[in-house]
Amino acid sequence: MALTRGLAQSFGARGAWGGRLWSSSSSPPCRLVRDHVADVLAHPSDGYFSSRPHVVGKVEEPLSFKTMIGKSGYDYKVRDLYRARGTSWLTPAEIFQPYYGQAVARYLVQDLLERGEQELRVCEIGGGNGTLAANVLDYVRSRHPDLYERTKYTVVDVSKALCERQELLVAGHDELHSSRFTTVAGDAADGGVWRGLVREREGHVYVLGTEILDNLPHDRVEKVGGEWMETWIRYDDDDSPNGREELRPLRDRSIGRCLEAFDWVGAREGAGSEAEDAGFLSSLENFLLSGSAGPEGSRGEDDDEVVFLPTAAVSILESLSIEIPDHTLVLIDFDSLPDVQLRGRNAPLVSNTEMAEARDASTYLVPVGSHDIFFPTNFSALRALYSGIMTSEAGTPGRVSAATRPSSEFFKEFADLQMTTTMSGYNPLIEDFRNTQVFVGQRTTKQ
After folding, report:
1. Hey, which of 150, 193, 309, 334 would disulfide with 119, CB 3.0 to 4.6 Å?
2. Which UniProt keywords apply (predicted)?
3. Residues spanned by the domain of 44
């Protein structure tokens, strides 16, 4: 099995996503699914992440993988981290620091030098604790000091509290980073947030997003009588206090754009890797997450009449196409999730973890702040959406490319694998990422 739910949860969630906050102090009578999901996750006061400040954990010191006996030693250490910190999620940037961030930095520098660019400008969506940013800046300063003098790193995050945490952590790594690192508390789907970040819209910008796609709000469509209908949530039924679904004819532009860009029913992505052994992930599931339904795979793949669409991601791509037309977009996320109980393609895993024990829900219609909701990414669809948006909406002519590859291939090329290999030869950076992929979209306006 590619990824059991232990690491899906450990690695999949981020403290703040870059998508639009449609939330309000009280639920409206009726709204789209993406608005409901946004409230559950990121309501300013009651959302899952905003109301649980310690949901995303911090690893204070790098792990010594070389001294671990093998997989069992790695299993034990990560279990211990979860127990000691009482946290729900640890991201790969945390567990594999600084090596994860160094690998990303190597890619950025190599691509920049091949382009002949003179400045390194990075915008990260949803910066978590700031660990990735700090590790990238550390690497550039130590390995490329001249380039470091011409480096600017910005995090766009919906959480002001996390922005403050990121600034403190990055400055704590090196006081010189402070003059090269900034945060912007805002919505990455809002073009106004990106406007002004790039000086006169000139120069190439690297936009990063690690494990942010899975928490972006999605919309739901259902086929009735051969026609797709969009799903709205009504809140006027006393028997359904968390809302009930109502199907309506397609009207929403973002939903329509998603459906037109890709054959969601004809493509099956990620399902083939479910049967592979997951290593530590299975151990973490059995040891920590006794509430799991078991490694049965995703129900959603069996239902072609319902599809969950990444409409918030579309909004971010549209903003980038206009505000930062010359860019490289690097996204790392999951192509499948196990134990999904909801019907439909790309259906989310809805779960609540308390005291290291997970309880899954069979619906996304849960109370605000009560559960995490995270979605797999169809990377073939992401390529189609990116290519279509960057070709049709950017005002300046340019070359567009989009490619994906397994994250294991990416880290084999750019990570220092000696530092994450255990005594037995087991390497969790490679072997615990079998259902994650790296997306690289590039739009170059220079002729």
Report:
1. 150
2. Methyltransferase, Mitochondrion, Transferase
3. 5-444
- CA dist., res. 354 & res. 313, Å (int): 29
Residue position matching structure tokens 């980073």: 177
CA atoms within 13 A on the CB side of 33: 28
Phi-psi sector, 89: left (phi>0), alpha (psi -120 to 50), beta: beta
| Full 3-state SS string of the chain | CCCCHHHHHHHHCCCCCCCCCCCCCCCCCEEEHHHHHHHHHHCCCCCCCCCCCCCECCCCCCCCHHHCCCHHHHHHHHHHHHHHHCCCECCHHHHCCCHHHHHHHHHHHHHHHHHCCCCEEEEEECCCCCHHHHHHHHHHHHHCHHHHCCEEEEEEECCHHHHHHHHHHHHHHCHHHHHCEEEEECCCCCHHHHCCCCHHHCCCEEEEEECCHHHCCCEEEEEECCEEEEEEEECCCCCCCCCEEEEEECCCHHHHHHHHHCCCCCCCCCHHHHHCCCCHHHHHHHHHCCCCCCCCCCHHHHCCCEEEECHHHHHHHHHHHHHCCCEEEEEEEECCCCCCCCCCECCCEEEEEECCEEEEECCCCCCCCCCEEECCCCHHHHHHHHHHHHHHCCCCCCEEEEEEEEHHHHHHHHCCHHHHCCCCCCCHHHHCCCCEEEEEEEEECCC
Judge contact between 40 and 369, C-beta under 8 A. Answer: yes
CATH code of the domain containing 118: 3.40.50.12710
Per-residue pLDDT of the chain (447 residues; tens, 9 = 90+): 233 233 333 333 333 333 333 344 455 689 999 999 999 988 888 888 877 767 778 888 999 999 999 999 999 998 888 877 766 678 899 999 999 999 999 999 999 999 999 999 999 999 989 999 999 999 999 999 999 999 999 999 888 888 999 999 999 999 999 999 999 988 888 888 888 777 655 689 999 999 999 999 999 999 999 999 999 999 987 788 889 999 999 999 999 999 999 999 876 654 434 334 444 443 344 333 333 333 333 444 447 899 999 999 999 999 999 889 899 999 999 999 888 999 999 999 998 876 556 788 999 999 998 899 999 999 999 999 999 999 986 556 679 999 999 999 999 999 999 999 999 999 999 998 788 999 999 998 876
Distance CA 346, CA 306 (A): 9
292 exposed, middle or buried (CB, 10 Å; 0-12, 13-18, 19+)? buried
Residue type, 238: D
